[in-house]
Amino acid sequence: MENTGGWRMAGMEVPLLSTDSIEWVQVSIPSSSNLNPTTSQNPVAKDFASCCPIGDPPSYFIWKTSKSHSNILELMELSNNSEIPRIGLRLIFPDTLFPFAFICKNEEKFTSGNLFLLYALTMSGVAFLIRLRNNFEYGTSSLVPTDEILEYNTQIQPYNGAIKAVAATAGCLVIGRSDGSVGYFQLGTVDPSAPGFVSELRDDTGFGRLWGILSRGPTLAGVQDLVISEVHQRKLLFVLHSDGCFRVWDLSTRGKIFSNMMTDPTLPGALVRLWVGEADYNTGIIPLAILHNQHLVDGEKGDSTDSIFLHGLRCNAGDRLTLFLEPSLKQISLREGEPIDICLTSNKLWILKEDGLVLHNLFCDDVNEGLSYYYQLQETFIADLLFQSSEHSSADLFSLACAAFSSSKEEVVPIVSSVFLRGLFFPGVHCNAVLKQTFADHNKHFTDSEFGLFTTNGLKNEILSLIEHQGGYESPVSTFHCWNRFCSRFVNNWYKNNAACGMFIDPVTGAIGLVRSRTISIFRGLVDAEHIIYGSFDGLKHFSYCGDEFDLEIQLDFLKCVHDVSQQLGKASSAIFYESLLCRPNISSEDVIPPFLKILETGYSSSIAALHISELGADAVSEKELSNQRNLRKFSTEMFMSFHALCYKANSWDKILDVAERYLKFLVPQKMVLDVDFESVFSINCSATVQATSQIAKVMFESAFDVLMLLNYMISISGQINMSHSHVSRVKVELVPMIQEIITEWHIIYFFGTTPSESPSVEDFSSRLSSLQIADSNVDRRLWNGRLGKCEFSLAFILLLSMQNFLGDLKHLYLTRLPNPCNLISLSLEFTSWMIWGRAGEESSVFFSNSIDLALILLRHGQYNATEYLLSLVDVYSRKEKIFESLQDIDRKMPTLLHLLGCCLVAQTQHEMHVPIKDRNACEAVRCFFRASSVKGAFAALRSLPHEAGWLLVDFSSFTSAAAWKLQYYQWVMQLFEQFNMNDAANQFALAALELVDEALRPVDSSSQEHSMESVSTVKGRLWANVFKLTLDLNNYHDAYCAIISNPDEESKSICLRRFIIVLHERGAVKMLCDGQFPLIGLVEKVEQELARKAERSDFSTKPNPFQLLYAFQMYRHNWRSAASFIYMYSVRLRAEAATKDSQYRSLALQERLNALSAAVNALQLAHPAHAWIYSPIEETSHDKDNYPNKKARLIVQEPSPVDDSLPQKSQSYLDVEKLESEFVLTSAEYLLSLGNINWTSTGYEKPSSELIDLLVETNLYDMAFTVILKFWKGSALKRELERVFMAMAFKCCPSKPVSLLLGQGKDRRTHGLLSTSAHHEAVQNSNGMFAPGQQSISGGHWLTLELYLDKYMSFHPRLPLIVAGALLSADPQIELPLWLVRLLKGVRTESSFGMTGRESSPASLFCLYVDYGRYVEAINLLIEYVEALAAVRPADVIHRKKPFAVWFPYTSIERLWCLLEESVRLGHRIDQCEKLKKLLHGVLLNHLNLLKVDSDDARSSII
Questions:
Q1: How far is the C-alpha of 1174 from the C-alpha of 664, rounded, in Å?
Q2: Which of 308, 329, 548, 863 has the fewest C-beta atoms lying within 10 Å of its C-beta?
Q3: SS3 labels along 1087-1115
Q4: Could you tell me the pLDDT band of residue 1314, with boundaries at 50, 70 and 90?
């Protein structure tokens, strides 16, 4: 910033504390006053704030009132002896407060926790004396207790004028009124009811005071201002009246000791404010400052010029203090705008205005105004940072970004967004209230609680979402404009919501504090380089510069060229360059320099200007291009002339380059000796040091970048400015690498100071590393965990506090008071020196070696991203050949750097959500660890790691060779990766360690072999076991198998094989073991044993079942009998398990058992018939099952006999295919019954009882019933079972009769059981004797079933149709036999059969059934049918009919039918019907007998 009007820049504001982090305790002040609260318009026109330092070391009590809440007083306590405050106090008064507060120490002996007193006054005149509690500990109370408040109404008298000014000191309160009176109240010293509590400071003495208002004498003008100051241990009251009268009172005597008129008749206006500085006892001068305001005259509101008149009041101490007014020191014009606040010391005047803080020296040669200095406020810094100032247009940012990344347009939006986000969250700039208001301006509203839950990343995401919602991602131009609008609103809101309210000065140190609405700041000075940059130096006396006056002139001309380059590019260029440094490896900073250089040479391209056509229009864009071309020509011409003039003045380029090199060394961070001890405290000085360091780093980074651009520009136009090749080479080889390292150093400092720390994770990386003997030794870390992740707690805080705690540096940070501007600069320089150079006496003197210590601190506190960036940056620079003076030193610490970088990358993988980035970090970590172990001197470098740092606590003295150390290191890295589930990386180091085992454990001599802790085989076995585990976790089953077979340790191999089988089983990949994908050379028996062991100890519900695996395993190897044995064991286990389970579980078990039995049968059928048998396993007892849990062995696995055993041992039962098939049939029946919730338990392969058939028939399981019958019954027993089944089926077809009637008294009990449970099959008759519809459908289904099975199984028992017909007629004699059944009984007529002949089921049998059950009509019709058929044979068949015995009828049954008909007639039953039937039967028999007689005669005659 250039100096104007005699003002020189001397420093800038440094944010110290934000009230966003303050938790406010809000309590109300009860009042007993009867006065009504002020109802008029709020007389408070602005916010007021000040500070009261108390004690030594002091506590700074900062108070603030606001015009928006005029009855609230906010208090904060700052102390450098403790942490930054987190609690503030809000006192709510019953009326509007006067903009005044005074806090002092409570001198009472018994304070009871109330160490401080607060004086306050309301506009209505009620004074309060409040005893403040320590640390504002009011608990949950919402009121201040009345015993801690002293209240007094100062405006009781009706003649009292309005209060115009107030002042206080310990024990008294002084009020100045509009009537000119000054009231003195001994508040806190004398009881309000006691005499002398209230008095009035008046000119008269003696009895005149008793007259009161009648003896006032001349009328005094209203009091304008009051100030109490201590001079020679006396409390003096300085009073300024509105007429210019100035009086001084001694409060101890309450007498006036000085009076004078201060007005100048030639000056219009009035004196409105008074400030009194500290007395300088050396000169005896008390400085006075009086503010003169012109527009107060006659109510004028036009332009005015405020001035401050400085006076000196000489004091002589003695028995009586005398004061004399010295001639006026000077008059200071305040130019435009009223002052916000003014502070006066013994020799300096500080004026706070909206555009800066101005410093005037009271005593100087110039009696008029003299040289003044100003301190830049945060408003200017924020406007520049967010590109909202008039000096730096925000359009430069977009144009430069487009030019820098013209080849990759997709990078423009992220870069622009990153620049703005970094500015919004810059420490001291970020403010929650301002950001919340900016969101509200964009119609995005949050409550205080919601906004308080946002993290830094959460707020960034919300801002990005808002920009996207505003249409910011439609094009790069729209993105830029959305960001520009957002930042513009943010800056405006920052100005409104965080305006300056007041200032204060520490009288001891001279520290200047600034109180804003939401922040508290102090001011710093400028470092030497900043004096040059800002042009605020005065010759060589303001800074240490190595050179004479001539060199300084050349230096200034060189810096003017630097400034011209900076102005041509704009301030946005350094911001884009900084982002390019942060965004590596996506964007390289070296790729940004050429586009910027091209802009200096040829200007912006037309493609960049075309982007603004939609916004500005074609004409405006064309005009802008012309303007840019004019500026470029002007710049090129001026630079050409400047370089020639510079070369002419210096006589050679060598001189210029020497001066430039000297200036570059001047930009290098200073190295300071630090040798103090001191305890770390996160105090306000720490915050000030970090903020000041960040500001300095930003300025130095930008300045160094401007020099870099100038050097590159000089190289590009070297031919035009007469630079020789040697000069160009010197710039490239010496100066450019030097400035690049300087930029990197300031870039890292700037990065530390502005990057927020990472929040501690739930499971910290260092805590997980503790199991690897990696510990965190920082005992004070708990003091910071609450602040980690906050915007205001940057990485520099961690470094600063760690530096104090571990190295004992920077004692000055523990100053008991706030630092003045010069001390704050010293603290920043010491902190910068420690970060870059380390402590005095270190081996290396370059930054890149000290970065190892910084990385250790950051990594120890979980700052993995920052550590990775720092170490990566150093790694990149170490591989560059043009690194300046650093390669030799960094090589010695490269192993340590790579080791720490690897640890950091491992930690980052735990927090990264994107898989590609996690994989990249993992690969990079592997590369770092391998490089760390391979670099020359790695053993010594890693050995030198401090134990308190927490890394590799290994006894290095036990290693006899580098291979032994590397073996240990690889194992440690393997465990590190393994603990973080990075199995692929861990596997690489396990394999690498295996390659070193032989060399590392090779005995050097016999003694070393004896002392060897482990053998080669043991170490290899352990490492191969790790390889197995890691590859298995990666699902690389083939690699895991190779690790098993490669393991030389048999015990370890067995354990791995067991684990291999278990994991394959759990992951459903065990079929790979059974289908021959693994050769299993020499491992078949072990695999079988492991599978058998798992089968014995597994529950049958395990999927896949181990028994099935054993079956598949043996089947693949053609071990049929073993496969059948194992799968049969499975079926036995299933039978035991299913016995005690519910029906659903039992059904599933039975179904699985059927599959097992079927598999066993299939396996044995593949074996040779002579060997197709297995041993029957011994089953467990119920007692055993109760004593063993599911995971215990329940079966004794019988080893299968050798294949060549053709006969089983007679002492042990065996099972062949037939028995297994029998068991399969019975298990099938049990399974089907279980589906119907019917319990029946199979007994194995033995013949079941008939009860099973009954149950199957009862549940309509006919197929199963017939299968069981055909399997287990033979001969007559088979026929009997079939008859029982078909009779039961026939009975189900007759629902018209009750079961009891159908069965009769003599029926078999078991037959009764077939129907007894089928209640829905019982016969039901209605009044008409018809079946119900539902029963008809059920019966119809039974008829079809009966027909189907009778046709199917009649071949096994020919009488089955007759049995069925008999059963039907026995159940219902009147039933109509189905046609298909009648046809079955009639059979098929042949040419050789005549009459009613047939097999067991014949027409004769049917005729007999009809007769037996009274079906006379059907019987006669059947007889007629066959008699007529006999008579109606073809003539060709008559000869056959006439053969002997060719015709047969059941004559006995016919005779019986005749008798039954006669019996019915005799008894009178159906006489008519029976008579008709007799006649019919008689006629049929007569015709039949006649036919037989004729056939007999024919047969006899043929014989004759």
A1: 95
A2: 548
A3: HHHHHHHHHHCCCCCCCCCHHHHHHHHHH
A4: very low
